[in-house]
C-alpha cells in the first residue's frame, strides 16, 4: 500500500510540473541558451517507476520554435528529445506534415517523420514521400527516398528534395520529372516555386513544350507570367523545321519569339540554310529572323551545287505572306473608315491585340513583336480624358440631340483639361501620330516611285521582247517566201518539160507553224504586260522589281522569303564570289541583288557595276544583269587587262561558268591578242560599237561579235604610243577585295542532333506510378489514410496562450 501511495505521489508531482509548464502564456525559458519544448496533455507519467522517461496521452500537443506537434501519444526522453506515435501532425505557418510516427530533437530543431507514406501540405501544394525531416527553426524540410509533388496543374517528382517553407520552393534533385499544362521536363535538378509556378533548372535538362518544341539547357529558368523559357548555358531548341544552338536563349512561347546570344547557330532544314551570329532573333510565325554581331549564312543544298557562304554586318530574313498582308491592310483601312464615320469606337478603346493574319506589318520589324503597351495606355488615357462623357450623351432626349449648333456643348480641347503626365503623354502621342503620318506619306510616295520605275522597266522589257519577236516573224516570213518561190520554180521547170512532180510541202508547214507560234507568243506578251499593269498596285516593290526583270507576272497570294544583308557583304562559292555594301535575295525568282560598289568574280573574270542582279535556277548561276557603268575585265598580268564596258551588260552562265557576255549601248573594248607558248601579248585592240557579244570556252574568248558599225584599231604592242590610255573610264581591278572562304565563314558547324533528340524518352513519372500503387494497396489493407485533418481548437487556443498562431492551409486546388 505504501508503494502505491509513493508512486501516486511521484506521478502527481510530475503531473504538477508539466501542468505548470503547459499553462505558461510566454515563450518557454531558455536552458543553456536554447528554448525548451512546451508540452500539454490530459495524462502523463513515468513509463516505469523511478524512470525519467515520461509518457503523455490525451489531447497531447508540443510546441517548439512556433511549430506545434499533435499525436495520439508521446514519450518524452528529455527536455529536448520526444517521440510521437499515432496520427502525428506537425504544423508551422501554412505547412502541415502528416505521419504515423515522429522523432523530435530540440537541440537540432529537427523533426523526423515516419510513415508508409508521409504527406506534406502547403496551400495548394501536396508532397508525398516515405521519410521527411523538418527543421522547425529554419522551416526547411528534406526527403531522400523519392517524393511526388502536386500543385494545381503541376506534377513534379524526384529521388531527393529540399522543401523551403518560407520561400515556397522545392529543390528537386536526381531523376527529376515535371509536367503541367505548358511543358514536360526531365533533368538532374529543378528549383520549383510553389507560389508562382516559376522553375529554375540545371544540368542536363530536357523540356518539351505544348507546341511540340524541344529545349535543352544546362542552366535556365521558366517564368510562368510571360510563359518565358530562359537558358543561360548550353542551349538547344528543336522545332519541326529548325534546330537552334546558343549559349543564351530567351524563348517567349506565346509569341513564338526566340532571342539568342553568343555562338548562335540556326539550321533551317526546310530550306537547307545554316545561319550563324553572336546575336539573333527568330519569330516562328511567320518565320522571320534577325542576325548580327558577325553573322553568316550557309546554303548547303549540295544536290544542286557547292555550298554558298554569305556574311554581312547584319542580316534580316523575312517570310512574307502577301495575301495575309493584303487582307490585314484592307481590314485596317475599313476600320479607319468606320472610325471616321463613327460606326465603331476609337482603336485605343478596344483590344489592341494584333489579328492572327496580320503577318508582318513593317519591313524593319518582323511580325510577332509585341506593341508598346505603355504607348497604348497613354493613348487610352489621353483619349478618355479628352472626350465628353459618352454615357451622359446617350441619355439626352432626341429634341436636344437635334438642337441648333449654338445650343450644343462645344468640343473640349484635351489640352485644356489635361495636366501633368497626362498632358505630356497626349502631346507626345500627337507628335508620334504626326510623325507616323509623315512616314506613311513618304512610304506611299516611295511606293509610287518604285511602281513607276517597275512599270518603265516592264514596258522596256516587253518592248524589247516584242521587237525581237517581230524580227523573228520577218525572218520566218522571208524564209517562207523563199521556200515558196523555190517550190514554184521547180513546178515551172517540170511543167516546161511536160512532167508532173509531187512536191513535199513539209518545210512550208513547219514555217507556218513557227509563224503561228510566234504570233501566239506576241499575244501572250501583250497579255502579260496588261496583267502586270493591272496588278502593280497589289504587290510589294521588291516583288515588282523581280517580276519586271524576268518579264513575268508576279505571283499573287503567295508566300516567299526575303533575305537582306547590310554593310560589308561578302559572298563565296567555289565557282563565284561577290562583295558589295548591301544585298537582297528573293526566293520568288531566285535572284540576288547587289548594291553599292558591287563586284562579282567568276573564274578569271571580274564584273563591276552600280547594281548587279544575279539570277539562279536550281541553285545554279543562270545570268547576271549589270546596270550602271558595267565593266567586265580579266587580268593578263599586273599591267594588262582585257576590258569591255557599255550601258548594260548581261553575263550568261553554263555549269556556273560564263560562256557568253552581251554588252549593249556605247560598247568600248580593250582586248589583248596573245601568241606563242607560253602566251605573250602581241597586239592590242581598241574597239567601239553599239552592241557586242563575247563567247567564252575553256576560260578563253573564242569569238567576239560586234554590231552597229563597229570601229576598231589594232596596234602591235611595241608600236603602242606611250600616252595611250590602257584602261577604260571607271575601270579598277578589285582583286584585293575578292573574298576567300575563310574571310566569309570561319565558325564551327555543329552537326545535327535531330535524330538523337527525337528519340529521347519523355517523362513517364515512375515514382508517381509506384506511389499510386502503394497508396491503393495500403488503403485497402487499412494501414494508411490520405489525411487532411487540422489542428484542433483546444490546441489552437493553447498556442495562442503561448503567443503563437496556428496556420490554416488554403483550400487546395485540383490534384493531378
Give an overview in words:
The chain is of the alpha+beta class and 816 residues long. 27% of the residues lie in helices and 40% in strands. The protein has a 42-stranded antiparallel sheet that branches. The chain has a two-stranded antiparallel sheet with strand order 1-2. Helix 3 (373-386) crosses helix 7 (420-496) and helix 7 (420-496) runs parallel beside helix 9 (541-550). The two termini are 63 Å apart.
Q: Roughly what is the average pLDDT, rounded to an integer?
A: 77
Main beta sheet strand tally, sense and closure: 42 strands, antiparallel
Estimate the strand proportion.
35-45%
Structural class estimated from helices and strands: alpha+beta
Number of strands: 44
| Total DSSP helices | 13
Total count of domains: 4
CATH superfamily of the largest domain: Lipopolysaccharide (LPS) transport protein A like domain
Overall shape:
elongated
- Identify low-pLDDT runs: 1-32, 347-410, 523-557, 812-816
CATH topology call of the largest domain: lipopolysaccharide transport protein A fold
- The CATH class of the largest domain, by name, is Mainly Beta
Distance between the terminal alpha carbons, to the nearest Å?
A: 63 Å
What is the helix content? 25-40%
Radius of gyration: 43 Å
Overall CATH architecture of the largest domain: Sandwich
Q: Which SSEs are present, and which pair or pack?
A:
Elements: H1 2-22, E1 30-31, E2 34-35, E3 38-40, E4 43-46, E5 54-64, E6 67-78, E7 81-92, E8 95-105, E9 110-122, E10 125-135, E11 140-143, E12 147-151, E13 154-158, E14 160-164, E15 169-179, E16 183-193, E17 199-201, E18 205-209, E19 214-217, E20 219-223, E21 228-233, E22 235-238, E23 242-246, E24 248-252, E25 257-268, E26 273-283, E27 288-292, E28 296-299, E29 308-311, E30 314-321, H2 322-340, H3 373-386, H4 390-394, H5 398-401, H6 414-417, H7 420-496, H8 506-535, H9 541-550, E31 559-573, E32 576-586, E33 591-595, E34 599-602, E35 605-608, E36 611-617, E37 620-627, E38 631-635, E39 641-645, E40 648-654, E41 657-675, E42 680-697, E43 700-707, E44 711-716, H10 741-744, H11 754-758, H12 766-781, H13 793-801
Antiparallel strand pairs: 1-2, 3-5, 4-5, 5-6, 6-7, 7-8, 8-9, 9-10, 10-11, 10-12, 11-14, 12-13, 13-15, 14-15, 15-16, 16-17, 16-18, 17-20, 18-19, 19-22, 20-21, 21-24, 22-23, 23-25, 24-25, 25-26, 26-27, 26-28, 27-30, 28-29, 29-31, 30-31, 31-32, 32-33, 32-34, 33-36, 34-35, 35-38, 36-37, 37-40, ...
Amino acid at each position: 500500500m505504501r508503494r502505491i501511495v509513493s508512486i501516486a505521489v511521484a506521478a502527481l508531482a510530475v503531473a504538477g510540473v508539466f501542468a505548470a509548464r503547459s499553462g505558461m502564456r510566454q515563450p518557454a525559458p531558455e536552458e543553456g541558451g536554447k528554448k525548451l519544448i512546451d508540452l500539454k496533455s490530459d495524462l502523463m507519467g513515468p513509463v516505469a517507476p523511478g524512470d525519467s522517461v515520461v509518457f503523455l496521452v490525451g489531447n497531447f500537443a508540443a510546441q517548439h520554435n512556433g511549430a506545434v506537434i499533435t499525436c495520439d501519444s508521446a514519450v518524452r526522453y528529455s527536455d529536448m528529445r520526444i517521440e510521437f506515435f499515432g496520427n502525428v501532425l506537425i504544423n508551422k505557418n501554412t505547412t502541415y506534415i502528416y505521419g504515423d510516427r515522429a522523432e523530435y530533437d530540440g537541440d537540432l530543431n529537427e523533426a523526423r517523420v515516419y510513415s508508409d507514406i508521409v504527406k506534406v501540405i502547403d496551400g495548394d501544394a501536396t508532397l508525398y514521400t516515405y521519410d521527411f525531416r523538418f527543421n522547425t527553426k529554419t522551416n526547411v524540410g528534406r526527403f531522400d527516398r523519392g517524393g511526388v509533388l502536386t500543385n494545381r496543374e503541376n506534377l513534379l517528382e524526384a529521388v531527393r528534395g529540399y522543401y523551403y517553407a518560407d520561400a515556397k520552393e522545392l529543390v528537386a534533385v536526381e531523376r527529376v520529372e515535371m509536367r503541367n499544362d505548358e511543358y514536360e521536363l526531365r533533368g538532374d535538378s529543378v528549383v520549383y516555386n510553389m507560389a508562382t509556378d516559376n522553375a529554375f533548372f540545371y544540368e542536363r535538362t530536357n523540356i518539351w513544350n505544348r507546341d511540340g518544341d524541344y529545349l535543352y539547357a544546362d542552366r535556365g529558368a521558366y517564368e510562368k507570367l510571360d510563359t518565358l523559357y530562359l537558358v543561360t548555358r548550353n542551349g538547344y531548341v528543336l522545332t519541326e523545321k529548325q534546330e537552334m544552338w546558343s549559349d543564351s536563349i530567351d524563348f517567349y512561347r506565346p509569341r513564338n519569339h526566340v532571342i539568342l546570344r553568343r555562338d548562335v547557330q540556326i539550321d533551317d532544314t526546310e530550306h537547307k540554310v545554316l545561319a550563324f551570329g553572336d546575336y539573333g532573333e527568330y519569330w516562328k510565325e511567320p518565320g522571320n529572323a534577325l542576325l548580327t554581331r558577325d553573322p553568316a549564312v550557309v546554303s548547303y543544298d549540295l544536290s544542286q551545287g557547292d555550298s554558298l557562304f554569305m556574311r554581312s554586318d547584319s542580316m534580316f530574313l523575312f517570310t512574307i505572306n502577301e495575301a495575309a498582308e493584303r487582307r490585314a491592310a484592307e481590314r485596317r483601312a475599313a476600320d479607319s473608315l468606320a472610325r471616321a464615320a463613327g460606326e465603331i469606337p476609337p482603336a485605343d478603346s478596344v483590344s489592341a491585340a494584333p489579328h492572327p493574319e496580320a503577318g508582318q506589318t513593317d519591313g524593319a520589324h518582323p511580325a510577332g513583336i509585341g506593341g508598346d503597351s505603355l504607348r497604348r495606355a497613354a493613348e487610352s488615357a489621353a483619349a478618355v480624358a479628352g472626350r465628353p462623357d459618352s454615357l451622359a450623351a446617350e441619355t439626352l432626349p432626341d429634341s436636344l440631340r437635334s438642337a441648333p449648333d449654338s445650343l450644343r456643348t462645344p468640343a473640349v480641347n484635351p489640352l485644356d483639361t489635361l495636366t501633368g503626365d497626362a498632358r505630356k503623354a497626349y502631346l507626345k502621342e500627337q507628335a508620334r501620330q504626326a510623325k507616323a503620318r509623315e512616314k506613311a506619306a513618304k512610304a506611299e510616295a516611295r511606293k509610287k516611285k518604285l511602281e513607276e520605275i517597275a512599270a518603265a522597266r516592264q514596258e522596256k522589257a516587253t518592248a524589247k521582247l516584242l521587237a525581237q519577236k517581230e524580227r523573228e516573224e520577218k525572218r520566218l516570213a522571208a524564209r517562207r517566201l523563199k521556200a515558196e518561190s523555190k517550190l514554184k520554180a521547180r513546178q515551172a521547170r517540170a511543167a516546161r518539160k511536160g512532167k508532173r512532180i509531187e512536191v513535199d510541202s513539209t518545210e512550208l508547214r513547219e514555217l507556218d507553224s513557227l509563224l503561228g507560234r510566234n504570233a501566239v507568243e506576241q499575244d501572250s506578251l501583250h497579255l502579260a504586260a496588261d496583267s502586270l499593269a493591272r496588278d502593280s498596285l497589289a504587290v510589294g516593290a521588291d516583288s515588282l522589281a523581280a517580276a519586271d526583270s524576268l518579264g513575268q507576272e508576279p505571283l499573287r497570294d503567295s508566300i516567299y522569303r526575303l533575305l537582306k544583308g547590310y554593310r560589308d557583304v561578302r559572298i563565296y562559292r567555289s565557282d563565284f564570289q561577290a562583295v558589295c555594301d548591301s544585298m537582297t535575295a528573293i526566293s520568288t525568282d531566285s535572284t540576288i541583288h547587289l548594291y553599292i560598289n558591287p563586284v562579282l568574280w567568276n573564274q578569271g573574270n571580274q564584273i563591276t557595276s552600280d547594281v548587279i542582279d544575279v539570277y539562279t535556277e536550281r541553285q545554279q548561276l543562270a545570268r547576271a544583269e549589270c546596270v550602271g557603268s558595267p565593266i567586265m575585265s580579266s587580268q593578263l598580268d599586273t599591267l594588262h587587262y582585257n576590258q569591255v564596258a557599255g550601258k548594260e551588260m548581261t553575263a550568261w552562265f553554263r555549269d556556273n561558268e560564263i560562256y557568253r557576255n552581251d554588252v549593249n549601248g556605247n560598247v568600248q573594248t580593250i582586248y589583248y591578242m596573245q601568241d606563242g607558248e607560253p602566251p605573250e601579248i602581241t597586239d592590242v585592240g581598241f574597239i567601239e560599237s553599239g552592241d557586242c557579244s563575247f563567247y567564252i570556252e575553256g576560260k578563253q574568248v573564242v569569238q567576239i561579235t560586234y554590231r552597229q558599225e563597229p570601229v576598231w584599231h589594232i596596234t602591235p604592242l611595241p608600236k603602242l604610243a606611250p600616252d595611250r590610255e590602257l584602261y577604260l573610264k571607271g575601270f579598277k581591278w578589285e582583286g584585293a577585295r575578292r573574298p576567300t572562304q575563310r574571310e566569309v565563314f570561319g565558325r564551327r558547324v555543329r552537326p545535327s542532333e535531330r535524330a538523337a533528340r527525337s528519340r529521347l524518352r519523355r517523362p513517364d513519372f515512375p515514382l508517381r506510378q509506384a506511389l499510386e500503387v502503394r497508396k491503393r494497396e495500403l488503403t485497402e489493407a487499412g494501414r494508411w489514410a490520405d489525411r487532411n485533418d487540422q489542428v484542433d481548437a483546444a490546441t489552437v487556443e493553447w498556442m495562442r496562450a503561448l503567443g503563437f498562431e496556428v496556420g490554416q492551409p488554403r483550400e487546395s486546388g485540383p490534384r493531378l
